[in-house]
Structure formats: C-alpha cells, structure tokens
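Homework help board

Subject: predicted structure for assignment chain

Our instructor gave us this sequence and asked us to write out the predicted structure in token form, then describe one feature. I got the tokens but I'm not sure how to describe them. Can anyone check?
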Amino acid sequence: MGFVAAIRLVLVERYSTFTGRASREEFWWFVLFVLLVSIAANVIDAAFGSPVLQLVVSLALLVPWIAVVVRRLHDADRSGWWGLLLLLPVIGLIALIVIGLKPGTAGENRFGPAPRPAPAG
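My token output:
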C-alpha cells in the first residue's frame, strides 16, 4: 500500500470507522501524513501569527486519527480502549509505538479478517 492509497483509505473510505482492522502500512502512512500536514499548518500559522489553521487541521484529523489507532489496535488483537494509553505522557506513547510496529495477527481475529491490501498509489 502506498502513501496516497493509505490516505485515501483512512480519510475517504474509513473516516469514522472504528470496527475492523488497519494494516501497519495504513497506520504509519497516515501518521506521516498527519505529521506533514501539522508541520505545514504550524509554518503557515507562524507566518500569520495565528494558531487558527493548526486548530482546524487538528479538529479535522481527530476522528480519523482515533479511528485508525483503534483499528490498528484491533489488528494487534487488542481492544480500542488501549488507545487511552496515549493519556500517559511518555510510557503510553512508547507502548503504542511498539504495538504499531509489530505485525498484526495472521488471518482472522476477534475483530474481523486481516486488512485487505489496497492498490499501490
């Protein structure tokens, strides 16, 4: 799965889907997208001296961000409630990074079939 396919999958097809599973590629491409968009919004906000664009970007990406985290946790056969680890400043972030890097369970698990590969693009 390529960058564009992953972003299209998260933002268009599964914007607010909290069921099912997300592949590592889908998750990490979306993390990169959020990082790049946030950096661009911060640069533009710094040029204008107002945090409005970053606020709009953060609110627009909040739902798909939570959804893809939950689906990635499902792929690791963990409940979406594990996402609350992000409330723990450093340890929670490290734990979710480790979970995000590990391969998902092979085949079907209690959250559904393995993520289908999307066409590259």
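Reply (TA_rk): Your tokens look well-formed. For the description, you could write something like this. The chain has a mean pLDDT of 91. That's the kind of observation they're looking for.
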